[in-house]
Amino acid sequence: LGTILAEYFLKKKKKVFGCSKKISSNKRKKFESFDTNNELFFYKSIDIRKITEIKSWYKNVKGKTNSIEMIINCAAVPGEVNSFFKITNEVWKDIYDTNFFSVINTINIFFPLLKNSNKKLIINILGGGVGWHNLSKYKSPYITSKFALAGLTECLAKEFKKDDLTILGIFPGPMDSKLRNKLLDKKKVFFHELGGVYLDELEILIVSDLHFGKGISMAKDGFNIPPFDIDDTLSKLENIIKTPISFNVNTLKYNKQLQY
Predict the structure, then answer these.
(1) How far apart are the C-alpha atoms of 216 and 132, rounded to whole Å?
(2) Residues 6+ apart with CB under 8 A from 17
(3) Cα 244 to the chain's mean position, in Å?
(4) pLDDT tens-digit profile of 51-82?
(5) What are the pLDDT digits (tens) for 3-15?
């Protein structure tokens, strides 16, 4: 989501200060292609869980601008899918440090640059966790961290009103659609271990590029399609459609040659 937003603003010739743990060379080259004069795209690799690294990033940004119009908080990890009694304190801390406390620290540290702008906007991506009441089993750390972030967003919306600052929360939860319902009907859907999902009735092949995290347990039974980076997704999609593949749904085996 962060890379998509970065590309959107770069195309509009807006300055983008971005951070993440890492970025692929292909994505970086793509962003830099929108910034031929090296005046728009500024990236720093940091661990958003660590306040010292956020402060270091702030100093880097402050050296290039005296104001920013918008802060978008979209860092999140889903964590492991497990029962409440099997989730360790370390897992809880890691998820809350990323999904909740990183937002608090980022707003606190970058607020001086934000208040210098005529336009002031904070957007918190609250995740599907807030709306996934029917999917919340075994995901308590992720779900509750997003509820906490939703509560923080509502509180700050009232508190920052006097500062002419708008703060928004976005809930990108699942949509009730015919396609989603067919995906949930495992008798008609075939999941491939590379991350493909095939709907035989509609003759549609779907690959995922979502941010659920590679190899999570929910992906193993096809509940969430295993995600990949964009470049990785395309290469895997090419392999899938070029060769016969075998789908396994419980004991059901299914073979189909997919054509271009």
Answers:
(1) 17
(2) 42, 43, 44, 61, 64, 65, 68
(3) 31
(4) 999 999 999 999 999 999 999 999 988 877 78
(5) 888 888 998 999 9
Looking at residue 106, its amino acid is: T
Hey, how many other C-beta atoms are within 10 angstroms of the C-beta on 127? Answer: 26
Return the higher-pLDDT residue of 124 and 198: 124
Buried b (16+ CB within 10 A) or exposed e, 103-124: bebbbebbbebbeeeeebebbb
Mean per-residue pLDDT of the chain: 76
**Cα angle 125-131-137, degrees, rounded to a multiple of 5:** 115
Q: How far apart are CA 166 and CA 119, in angstroms?
A: 9
pLDDT at residue 38 is higher than 90: no
Residue 175: predicted pLDDT: 55
Burial class (CB in 10 A: 0-12, 13-18, 19+), 99: buried
- Three-state DSSP at 244 gives coil
Whose tokens are 């990323």? That residue is 98
